[in-house]
Design goal:
The chain is of the alpha/beta class. The chain contains 14 helices and twelve strands. Helix 1 packs across helix 14.
Amino acid sequence: MENYTIGFYLEKLYYIPHFEPVIKEIIKRNISYVIIIPKNRGRDELNQREESIKYCQEKGFTYCLDEEHRECNIMVFGNAPRHISTPFKKSALIMHGTWGGKTVNYAPDLNDVDLRFLDGKFMEDRLLELFPEKKSIYYISGYSKLDNYFQLTEEDRIKFLQSCHLDINKKTILYAPTFYPSSILKMGKKFPEDFAEYNIILKPHSHLFLRKRYRRDLHRLETWAKYPNVYLAHFNETDILPFLNASDLMISDMSSAVFEFAGIGKPAIVNMFLRYRLHDRLFPHKARKRLDTENFYLWEVADTPKRYQNMVKNAQEALAGTDKNKAKREELIHYVMGAVDGKVSPRIVDKLLELNNSIKA
């Protein structure tokens, strides 16, 4: 059975932007690695395994299928560890997103690893309140996904906008809604017309392409994409960094994407006019349980409009250069995201090698 030092369990394709900078650092150091690609889930509407294989082939990454006979010293997960076919000795977690207003990062099973990488001090403080006995597994590394941002240039911005058939001389709005709860169906139906003098890039969460229940949301985005100033990203455009580089303003929902944008020093808007399912409207306390409301002060990095009309006003102000949240953003971003310095991946690899050495010892 072939053995690798480090494995990456690619449960979902959208975890790859967090893994990729780390993989590149591993390749640079000539460490053996493999990306494990699991079978498709029955509810997926797209062949996610096929897309993951294609991505690895295009990048020249070493990969194998979960059912193939491989073993790893360390397995890196992007979410709670699963029972997988590939055997491993130690495990680590690079969570697929930072704080985004929900309690998902506090799930106990995310701690079922030997080493858990954290973005910043905020998450460490919060987790130590909840799980003080797990102190030894936490390590603040920063947010690996942003490492490659520092390699992007103005020329990259221009080429990217041209590839989207957008005007390189216009300012660009990045609308990056999450899957639930989402503002998509509560946005103005003529959103592209309200911002006709700007480029609009639509970068939805991958679940909109994968799940039947989000078809209405996806259809609304597809309708907007017919406007000449709008580009809708495809499912396999997993890397958000070119989108961040090309954009002047992000509009999103309660999503970690907001902190990614704030992390590179740009203004964002968090829509608070969200559409909830009937069950959550009937039992709002159940929806609130999934929200980390006691830490909503962190949304001060952005504007938080409660109506579409307010969002339009906030967006126009930001695009005119009024960055009124800059001071608060700079104050909070390091607390949540850690050091945004392009050196997160080397720190992660150093720590993974320490873990590997503990196996040998």
